[in-house]
């Protein structure tokens, strides 16, 4: 599995795509291009109203799924790209717990103050004039890209599993997802290092499974989307926990649940709610 940082660029201007690709390659980044909203999917004939948070339906839902699955280090928006509804997309991505931590960098015409202000108001982390973006691109990518500290994660994952976390996992494995929450939350709060993400990830998987048992489709899918930001950066084994196996379980659950949809959640196969393996 590749570990090079990913930039998702909502850019269509050939002059900028060429420059961005060259700088990204030099820095060891990958770039995926979304030049128009149609690449994400066809416009929704009748967009279903969404509650605040993650969009689960229509083109907005497909965008969320694409971003969450890829876990990019940076989102890059060309504010001159009229084929992208960047006002709506930036605001939506920055309002979601699953995607709000992903940095958003925008560039546009310095003379169009209203456009630059609108991007900042939508939640962009940085909004720059095209000239400055072009001149400072390497430094900007390195400053704003959010890249996991792999050596630090490897070091903390070599530490032993907290006793509270072990208790929470034991409850999780008995199917006591609600009861597991308190022990895992306490373990997460007691840990100030990056290893706490392991506990937060397991906690949120347990919440998702509990929501499935309660018939809460939206709550379960939201948690399954949110958990990837915590589990995906971790090594295959962390503090004795089989993280790779847990990620695979979460993916199977997500696929089965979304295939059923909210109307058929009662038919979900509970046997898919696997146990967490600890060495």
TrEMBL record:
Record protein name field: DUF309 domain-containing protein
Pfam hit, one: DUF309
InterPro entries in the record: CheY-like_superfamily, DUF309, TTHA0068_sf
């Amino acid at each position: 599995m590749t570990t090079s940082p990913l930039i998702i660029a909502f850019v269509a201007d050939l002059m900028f795509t060429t420059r961005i690709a060259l700088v990204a390659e030099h820095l060891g980044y990958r770039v995926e291009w979304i030049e128009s909203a149609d690449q994400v999917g066809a416009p929704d004939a009748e967009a279903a109203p969404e509650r605040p948070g993650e969009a689960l339906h229509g083109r907005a839902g497909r965008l969320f799924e694409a971003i969450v699955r890829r876990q990019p280090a940076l989102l890059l928006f060309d504010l001159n790209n009229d084929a992208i509804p960047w006002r709506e997309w930036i605001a939506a991505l920055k309002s979601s717990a699953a995607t709000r931590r992903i940095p958003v960098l925008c560039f546009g015409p310095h003379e169009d103050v209203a456009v630059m202000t609108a991007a900042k108001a939508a939640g962009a982390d940085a909004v720059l004039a095209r000239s400055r973006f072009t001149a400072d691109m390497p430094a900007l990518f390195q400053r704003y890209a959010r890249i996991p500290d792999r050596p630090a994660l490897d070091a903390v994952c070599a530490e032993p599993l907290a006793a509270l976390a072990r208790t929470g996992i034991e409850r999780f494995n008995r199917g006591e997802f609600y009861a597991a929450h308190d022990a895992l939350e306490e373990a997460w709060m007691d840990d100030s290092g990056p290893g706490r993400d392991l506990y937060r990830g397991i906690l949120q998987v347990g919440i998702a499974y509990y929501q499935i048992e309660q018939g809460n489709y939206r709550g379960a899918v939201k948690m399954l989307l949110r958990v990837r930001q915590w589990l995906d950066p971790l090594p295959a084994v962390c503090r004795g926990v089989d993280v790779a196996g847990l990620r695979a379980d979460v993916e199977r659950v997500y696929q089965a649940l979304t295939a059923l949809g909210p109307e058929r959640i009662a038919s979900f196969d509970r046997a898919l709610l696997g146990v967490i393996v600890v060495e």
